[in-house]
Design goal:
Length: 446
């Protein structure tokens, strides 16, 4: 009987709990219904099996099987080209149909850059200048991209874009003046050699720290966008610089702020002595573009026409649509990274010779011109002789020129020189006068 009484009490408690739960459901039902109604206004009513994700951070579908995304989802991003290695147009519809004068200008600028490189490289080896970086093998990336830009577009270079500046009209005298740090140098002798810059030509002065120009270019492109000035910004860098954190910041800012910016990556195979297979595991640099929401393309950097076409279209759309583009130009650095590097320590002579002899941007363009009767051996010899003469004249002039005045060390930071800098400048002059036998001031401009 006691047990039966206990079960009766439990039954009564159970019925009471059920009634309370029912009452609670009834009380909360209006609120739940209101939530569902509100939610129906925000998204389409999908069936449970077809319900789509609503996370704000991605656009995707649900799956019910565990599977990781493979790093290379396709066999490899294709390389866009216009010319074969023998200079033949592969698809006539992709021929930019440039005039003879334009193509000859391409060729002369590429070969003039090559001649300047050889003379200044030897100059450094003879102790005449302190440092140099050649552009051997990458001339097509410079000229092809520079020709596709407008003159008022802003250029941020890394340190191997001398051809871009040359195409824009930077004279040989100023190239030499910068490398010699003489009184004609626009930078007044304050920079290392090959750190060029020209305000008149919209070429931002190169700086040594790697990849700093990438977020700077994003900021400049955002300013250009706000001005609505029909300008674009182009930012050059190597595949090694793309491993810097600055690259992530620049890519992300430019995409989210919708900036008219062209990221131009010269993938030349090596970050100084580090080959690409030790730099990254993904499919090059172009593969990173979609992850940042950028339209991307990979081009044959040794094909000046392919580079021209890609840059021209990217420039047009960047300005018209206010969005960034990523161009990965596949090329090869034939020369040493700089005069501080010996590339024979990390790559074979046969490897270098292949790119120098079999797949060089200059020889490819020369094949194209020769096939059209625009160039022959006599013109080649005449131009090589003339270009060397032009470079040597600028070279000899730069060597004779005096160094910048020492007191320029204290100018161009403040509009008016500060008392502290005045004190430092006066102290410098007293020191130079007291120990003048140790300072050849006659080599400096007055």
């Amino acid at each position: 009987m006691a047990a039966a009484g206990g079960f009766g009490a439990l039954g009564r408690l159970g019925r009471h709990a059920v009634r309370r739960a029912a009452a609670l459901r009834a009380a909360t039902q209006p609120r739940l219904r209101a939530f569902r109604v509100s939610g129906a206004q925000l998204q389409q009513p999908f069936n449970t099996s077809e319900e789509k994700p609503q996370f704000p951070g991605a656009s995707a579908e649900f799956v019910d099987q565990l599977e990781f995304i493979q790093p290379n989802v396709i066999s490899g991003i294709p390389v866009y080209r216009v010319m074969s290695r023998q200079g033949q147009i592969i698809n006539p519809s992709e021929d930019p149909q440039l005039s003879k004068e334009t193509v000859l200008n391409f060729y002369q600028k590429m070969t003039l850059l090559n001649t300047m490189d050889r003379i200044l490289y030897e100059s450094q080896r003879q102790g005449r200048i302190s440092f140099y970086m050649t552009n051997y093998g990458e001339e097509g990336t410079h000229i092809g991209s520079a020709a596709a830009l407008d003159s008022n577009d802003l250029v941020f270079g890394q340190y191997r874009e001398a051809g871009v500046l040359m195409y824009r009209g930077f004279p040989l005298d100023l190239f030499m003046a910068q490398c010699y740090a003489n009184a004609d140098d626009l930078g007044k002798g304050r920079q290392m050699p090959v750190h060029y810059g020209s305000k008149d030509l919209n070429f931002v002065t190169i700086s040594s720290p790697l990849a700093t120009q990438i977020p700077q270019a994003a900021g400049a492109a955002y300013a250009v966008k706000r001005e609505n000035s029909n300008r674009a910004v182009i930012c050059y860098f190597g595949e090694g610089a793309a491993s810097e954190g600055d690259a992530h910041a620049g890519f992300n800012f430019s995409a989210t702020l919708e900036c008219p910016l062209i990221f131009f990556c010269r993938n030349n195979g090596y970050a100084i002595s580090t080959p690409t297979n030790e730099q990254y595991r993904g499919d090059g640099i172009a593969a990173r573009g979609p992850g940042y929401g950028m339209l991307s393309i990979r081009v044959d950097g040794n094909d000046v026409f392919a580079v021209y076409n890609a840059t021209k279209e990217a420039r047009r759309r960047a300005v018209a649509e206010n969005q960034p583009f990523l161009i990965e130009a596949m090329t090869y650095r034939i020369g040493h990274h700089s005069t501080s590097d010996d590339s024979s320590a990390y790559r074979s002579v046969d490897e270098v010779n292949y790119w120098d002899k079999q797949d060089h941007p200059i020889s490819r363009l020369r094949h194209y011109m020769t096939a059209r009767g625009w160039w022959d051996e006599d013109e080649e010899r005449t131009w090589r002789k003339q270009s060397r003469k032009l470079v040597m004249e600028a070279f000899e002039k730069a060597e004779r020129r005096l160094k910048p005045r020492p007191d320029l060390l204290f100018t161009d930071v403040y509009n008016e020189i500060t008392p502290t800098l005045t004190k430092q400048r006066d102290s410098m002059w007293r020191h130079l006068q007291q120990y003048k036998e140790h300072y050849p001031l006659d080599l400096y401009d007055k």
